[in-house]
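Holo model, guanosine-5'-diphosphate. Inputs:
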Amino acid sequence: LLGYIGIDTIIEQMRKKTMKTGFDFNIMVVGHSGLGKSTLVNTLFKSQVSRKSAGWARDEKIPKTVDIKSVSHVIEEGGVKMKLTIVDTPGFGDQINNDNCWEPISKHINEQYEKFLKEEVNITRKKRIPDTRVHCCLYFISPTGHSLRQLDVEFMKRLSHSVNIIPVIAKSDTMTVEEKQEFKQRVRKELEMNGIEFYPQKEFDDDMEDKSDNDKIREAMPFAVVGSDKEYQVNGKRVLGRKTAWGIVEVENPNHCEFAQLRDFLIRSHLQDLKEVTHNIHYETYRARRLNENGV
Ligand code: GDP
Ligand code: MG
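Output:
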C-alpha cells in the first residue's frame, strides 16, 4: 500500500522557484491623448504597488507623451521579486487623420512576441527568457457620458485579438455617481454590441467557479479610475489624491473611485491568469502565424 507520495509539495517547489527567479509583469496604457494615462502610470507606481516615484521629480508637470516609453521597477514583497514594467504610449486622436493610429501600438506588441519567439527557437536558449510581452493593455475611455467613439471601438476591436484589453473609464472624478453607473452600463452594452472581447474573456473561463468570479468582475467593468501622483494629508495619513475646491478625491479610497479595485484585480487576483492567457492564447496565435509564414 502506498504511503505519502508528496505530490502536494509541488506548491512549495513552485514557490521556491518563483522566489529564486522572480517574474516579469508588463502593463500598457493606451487611449486618446489627455485622458490621464501618464498620470495613472505614476499612480500605479506610487500607490501600494510600490511607494517609489516613477521618475518625475515632485510637482513637476508630466510632459506630453510623444514616444512609446517603458518604465520598470523591481518590487519585492515577502521574498518574491516582480519586475513591473509599464509601457506608456502617446495619445492619439489629435491628428486630423487617425487612420491606422493603432499601428505603432500593434507593432510594439508584436515586436515583443517576436523577441520572445526568437529566444525560444534559439539553439543556445536562455534558461529563463526575459518576458517583455504586454500582459494587459489598459484602454482609457473618455468620461463623456455619451457613446464610445468610433475610434475607440475600432482600436479595441483590433487590439483585442493580440492582447488582453482592460477598458477603464478615465478621469471619473468628473462624473456624478449616477452618471458613472449609467455610463459604465452603457459602455458594457456597446462593447458587447460591437463584439469586443475584453479581459477576462468569457470563452477562457475554466469552470463554473471561475465563471461566477469573472462574471462579477465583468459586471463591475470598466473600472472608473482617477489618477494622481500628488500626496495630501487626510485624517493624519498621507494619501494620493486630487485637490479640488470642494475637497480631496482620494485615489485609493474605494468610496471615491475604482482605482484600488483595478489594482487588486491586476495584481492580487488575475496576475497569473493574465500571464497565462498572454502566453497560451495571444502569443500562441502569433507564433502559429509566424511558423506558418515560414512554411515550417
Ligand atoms: P495622457 O495624455 O493620457 O498621458 O494624460 P496626462 O497624464 O498627461 O494628463 C493630462 C491632464 O489630465 C493633466 O493635467 C492631468 O493632471 C489631468 N488628469 C490626469 N488624471 C486625471 C484624473 O483622474 N482626473 C482629472 N480630473 N484630471 C486628470
Ligand atoms: Mg501621456
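The beta strands are 23-31, 69-77, 80-88, 136-141, 165-169, 223-224, 231-234, 237-244, 247-250. The two ends are 49 Å apart (CA to CA).
Archived with the compound record.
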